[in-house]
Every structure is written in structure tokens, then in C-alpha cells.
Design brief:
The chain is of the alpha+beta class. The protein has 4 domains: 104 residues, Thrombin, subunit H, CATH 2.40.10; 90 residues, Thrombin, subunit H; 86 residues, PDZ domain (Pdz3 Domain, Roll), CATH 2.30.42; 98 residues, PDZ domain (Pdz3 Domain). It contains 10 helices and 25 strands. The N and C termini lie far apart (112 Å).
């Protein structure tokens, strides 16, 4: 009897411990299990679905004889810029370059980076099954370094493998695969995570990933766990030429806009809202009654802005766009760029401690102010022969100027035979910002300053995110 009593007491002593252990185990593991999806045993099914649509692109092009190994490689110049003081190239040669691309339509539409096919005299696309097709560029988005190629002589009874564009929003932490042809070694698959959604890299809104991306991957595919295309690998942050875990890709929304433009002859018309914003600091957030500096502050609205017509005001704080939280100006620009023309925008705002929602439809960028296009006469000295025009939303869209470009100023629309343009490699779309330290707001303003250049002076030109100072 005594032994039986001791056994019962021992069992009773164990029961609360067992119950507690089970309960604590459920509390500790259930949330984690519901939040983190199990990793697949193999990515092979995703690769089998997407890899056949990833191609190698060979281009034959005339290139300048450069002074260093990477001095004319856009893959590297994207980050470090060209050297404006470098000596002029001594000639040209015919070269063969390699990149990657991805088929997005079974009729033979291939999307790649614009720099992969820049100045190409001939484009050859090789599929994973070693079939080869000649291609022709049918659309370009130079602002976002994208190009679309139509393959020639695709058999009608043999559609090509294609990958669909991802329709779901990607999030930081999503697993992804990068497929391309790095260094020309052959099709290669690497894996990683989405590190950031909207990185502002020299005026471009890019996805950041830690997947290994190397030269030759440029133009390939960033694939979701659904086997769909979420981005085009575009560049890496590296000073050695190898991957350091910081790679960038052009997001799917911009790819979709490019592909849609093929129906319009490759003309890309970006939706325009006419809103300028700035980052919220802790002090600004506190003054608006916000617990954290999340959102962006509207600092200016273009007089012709559809946002202004819809009731937005300077001083409003934008908290979300189409139910997507906005954390900084880069995030806001990225969301605006992702909208298709004709689609409505719904903004959640805070105004005077009150929350409100305003919906409006972006429009085609207007040509306001009027272009006032002129050719600079001889009195313009170093700028003689340049054709210039007033900057406007329409001009920004036409020349695909970087995100955040001010909507007032003077833009070069033709370089003609100008010596300065040849020496500095000026292009259509470069801006004349200052003459003799005077800010240039219009073509009329520029022409008023030209007489002062005869006795010496200075010119400031903006090329992308780079400023060029010229002494006359």
C-alpha cells in the first residue's frame, strides 16, 4: 500500500510539469510556425519552370577603345560614374558582349537591360536548349535601363518558353532565385532574399537582394517562389567586379510598363501626379502628431497637377498609397512609377491631426511651361549650337530623366556639332543648371545670361546625378 501511494504521488507530481511543458511548447512554436513558411526541400521545380525562359544575349557593337578595363562598362559606371577628365578614346573597334535576358511572351518578347544592347549592330539570343534567334530592339526605357527585344522568325507552331510577371507584391525577406549567365560560364542559379524594395540608386528605384549577381547576370531573371518574374538583375555594388551580397534588380512593375509600351510602338508614357515630397524627420513627425516619422510630407504641387485638382494640399502627410505604407520619398516615387496610366491612386493622408483619403487619376505629363525651343547662337561661346528647351513634365517623360528631376529649368534637346558636347559626352536630356552661378529657370533666363559668357564665366551642367563644372 505504501509503495502504491508513493507511485501515485510521483505521477501527480509529474502531471502539472507535463501540462506546463506542453502549453509552453504550443505558445512558443505556434506563432513561429504560422509566420514562417517551411523551406522547400528543393528549388528544382521552380528552376524547371522558369529557367527555360532565361536566355543569353550576344551583341556585336562598336565600342570606344577605353583607357581601363571597366571604364566603358555600364555595369560598373552605374555606381562609380565615368571619369570626365579621362583622355578621349583613340578609335573604335567591333566587340562582342554578353548579357542575359528573359522571355516574357511566347511569341518571342525578351526583356533585358538597355545597357546590354546599347549600340548593338547585331543581337543574337541563345535559348537554354541552344536554339539561336536574331533579335531587334522594339522598346527602351533608358531611365530604368530596360529594353525589349523581338525575336525574329519564331516558328508559329512552336511557342517559346516564357515566364509570367509576378502579380503579388514582394516583401523584404521573401526568398528569390537569380538566373543568368555570369561571366559566360553558362546558365547559373543562385538564391537569396529580398533585402529592400525601393533603393534609390543614382535616381533609379531598384530591388535590393543578397542573391549572388555577377557580370553576365545583368538582364537575367529574379524569380519568386511562384516561379514568376519579379525583377531584372541590373547591377551590383562592388569595387572588385565580384558579388559582395549587394545586388540590384529592376522591379516587375517597370517591366510591365515597358512590355505594354510595345503596343504603342515602344513609346513609354508615364503617369504623372505632379507631387513633390520630402522625408519626415522626428521633429516634423512630432509636430504633425505622428508617433514615428513614417510617411512623406508634400512640399509642392504643380499648378496643373491632378493631385491638386483632387484636393491635396502642401503640408499634407502621405501615409499610404493604394494601401501600401509609405516610409520615405524613395518608396513614394517607386509606388508612383509602378502605376499604369489610367489607374487610380488612393492616398491616405494626415492633415491637421485628421486622417483622410483622397483618390485621383494620374494623367499624361503636360508640356507646361511651353518648350520655347531655341539654338544657342555664337554669343553662347562654349554652348554655341546646342538646342535647348524649357523643362516640363512632358520633357522629363520624353527624355526619361531620373526620378526627382525638378520640373523647371533648361534641358539640352540636341547637341548638334558642339565641341563641348563632344568633349564632355553630353547627351540629349542633360540639363543646364547654372551660368555664372546664376540659377537657370527657363530658356529666356539662359539667353539673358549669354552675353556675360563672352568675358569668361562658368557653366554648370547636370548629367543624371553628376554635375559638370565648365570654365569659359
Amino acid at each position: 500500500m505504501h509503495r502504491r501511494l508513493n507511485l501515485i504521488i510521483a505521477l501527480l507530481a509529474l502531471l502539472p510539469f507535463t501540462a506546463f511543458a506542453d502549453a509552453s511548447s504550443e505558445q512558443a512554436t505556434e506563432p513561429v510556425a504560422s509566420m514562417v513558411p517551411p523551406a522547400p526541400a528543393s528549388f528544382a521545380p521552380i528552376v524547371k519552370k522558369a529557367a527555360p525562359a532565361v536566355v543569353s544575349i550576344y551583341t556585336f557593337q562598336k565600342v570606344n577603345l577605353a583607357n581601363s578595363l571597366f571604364s566603358d562598362d555600364p555595369f560598373f559606371n552605374f555606381f562609380f560614374g565615368e571619369n570626365p577628365n579621362a583622355e578621349e578614346p583613340q578609335g573604335q573597334r567591333l566587340a562582342k558582349s554578353l548579357g542575359s535576358g528573359v522571355i516574357v511572351n511566347s511569341t518571342g518578347i525578351v526583356v533585358t537591360c538597355a545597357h546590354v544592347v546599347a549600340n548593338a549592330k547585331k543581337i543574337i539570343v541563345r535559348l537554354s536548349d541552344n536554339r539561336e534567334f536574331e533579335g531587334k530592339v522594339v522598346a527602351k526605357d533608358l531611365q530604368n535601363d530596360l529594353a525589349a527585344i523581338q525575336l525574329k522568325n519564331v516558328p508559329e507552331n512552336s511557342p517559346l518558353p516564357a515566364v509570367a510577371l509576378e502579380e503579388n507584391d514582394v516583401e523584404v525577406g521573401d526568398r528569390i532565385l537569380a538566373i543568368g549567365n555570369p561571366f559566360g560560364v553558362g546558365q547559373t542559379v543562385t538564391g537569396g532574399l529580398i533585402s529592400a524594395i525601393a533603393r534609390n540608386v543614382r535616381g533609379r528605384m531598384l530591388i535590393q537582394t543578397d542573391a549572388s549577381i555577377n557580370p553576365g547576370n545583368s538582364g537575367g531573371a529574379l524569380i519568386s517562389m511562384n516561379g514568376n518574374l519579379i525583377g531584372i538583375p541590373n547591377a551590383i555594388l562592388s569595387r572588385t567586379g565580384g558579388s559582395h551580397g549587394i545586388g540590384f534588380a529592376i522591379p516587375e512593375a517597370l517591366i510591365r510598363i515597358l512590355v505594354d509600351s510595345i503596343k504603342n510602338g515602344g513609346v513609354i508614357i508615364r503617369p504623372w501626379a505632379g507631387i513633390e515630397v520630402q522625408r519626415l524627420t522626428n521633429d516634423l513627425a512630432a509636430s504633425f502628431g505622428l508617433a514615428t516619422p513614417q510617411g512623406v510630407l508634400i512640399t509642392n504641387l504643380h499648378p496643373s497637377s491632378p493631385a491638386l485638382a483632387a484636393g491635396l494640399q502642401q503640408g499634407d502627410v502621405v501615409l499610404a498609397l493604394n494601401d501600401q505604407s509609405i516610409s520615405n520619398p524613395e518608396d513614394f516615387i517607386y509606388r508612383i512609377q509602378s502605376i499604369s496610366l489610367g489607374e487610380k491612386i488612393s492616398l491616405k493622408l494626415q492633415r491637421n491631426q485628421e486622417k483622410l483619403t483622397i483618390t485621383f487619376q494620374p494623367v499624361e505629363p503636360p508640356a507646361i511651361p511651353a518648350p520655347d525651343t531655341r539654338i544657342i547662337p555664337e554669343m553662347g561661346g562654349a554652348m554655341n549650337g546646342l538646342e535647348v528647351s524649357n523643362l516640363s513634365p512632358a520633357i522629363i517623360s520624353k527624355y526619361q530623366l531620373p526620378a526627382g528631376t525638378p520640373e523647371r529649368g533648361v534641358v539640352i534637346t540636341d547637341t548638334g556639332k558642339n565641341i563641348l558636347a563632344l568633349q564632355l559626352r553630353l547627351n540629349k536630356g542633360d540639363m543646364i543648371e547654372e551660368v555664372n552661378q546664376h540659377r537657370i529657370e527657363s530658356v529666356a533666363d539662359l539667353f539673358n545670361e549669354l552675353p556675360n559668357l563672352q568675358s569668361g564665366g562658368s557653366i554648370t551642367i547636370r548629367q543624371g546625378n553628376r554635375r559638370i563644372e565648365v570654365r569659359t
